[in-house]
């Protein structure tokens, strides 16, 4: 199955890029807003934040500690420190 794509980056790639640049955890709406602002994802789709949420949660579930994403409090995500 190919990754969900909106533009030149997948949701996963865009989220990882945005969270690398952020100095604090972000929720999916904030990540999508930043990705659109940086033109990593186009402004399209009805609920891109829900799609991103599903992508990140699936990544965490499938990869466990190998996922770069960590869920913090109340639906906020950050990147695992390696």
Salient structural properties:
45% helix; 2 strands; mainly alpha; 7% strand; globular; 3 helices; 82 residues; two-stranded antiparallel ribbon
Could you explain the architecture of this structure?
With 82 residues, the chain is mainly alpha-helical. Helices cover 45% and strands 7% of the residues. The mean pLDDT is 90.
At a glance:
This protein has 82 residues and is mainly alpha-helical. Helix content is 45%, strand content 7%. 21% of the residues are buried.
Distance between the termini: 27 Å
User: Could you tell me the mean pLDDT?
Assistant: 90
**Helicity range:** 40-55%
Largest sheet: 2 strands, antiparallel
Low-confidence stretches: none
Spatial strand order of the main sheet: 1-2
* Structural domain tally: 1
Instruction: Please report which band the strand proportion falls in: under 5%, 5-15%, 15-25%, 25-35%, 35-45% or over 45%.
Output: 5-15%
Shape: globular
Structural class: mainly alpha
Count of distinct strands: 2
Radius of gyration: 12 Å
Task: Give the arrangement of secondary structure elements.
Layout: H1 11-21, H2 28-37, H3 48-63, E1 69-71, E2 77-79
């Amino acid at each position: 199955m190919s990754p969900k794509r909106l533009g030149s980056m997948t949701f996963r790639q865009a989220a990882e890029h945005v969270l690398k640049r952020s100095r604090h955890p972000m929720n999916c709406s904030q990540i999508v807003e930043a990705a659109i602002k940086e033109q990593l994802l186009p402004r399209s789709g009805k609920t891109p934040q829900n799609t991103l949420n599903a992508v990140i949660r699936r990544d965490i579930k499938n990869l466990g500690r190998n996922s770069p994403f960590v869920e913090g409090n109340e639906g906020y995500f950050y990147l695992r420190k390696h």
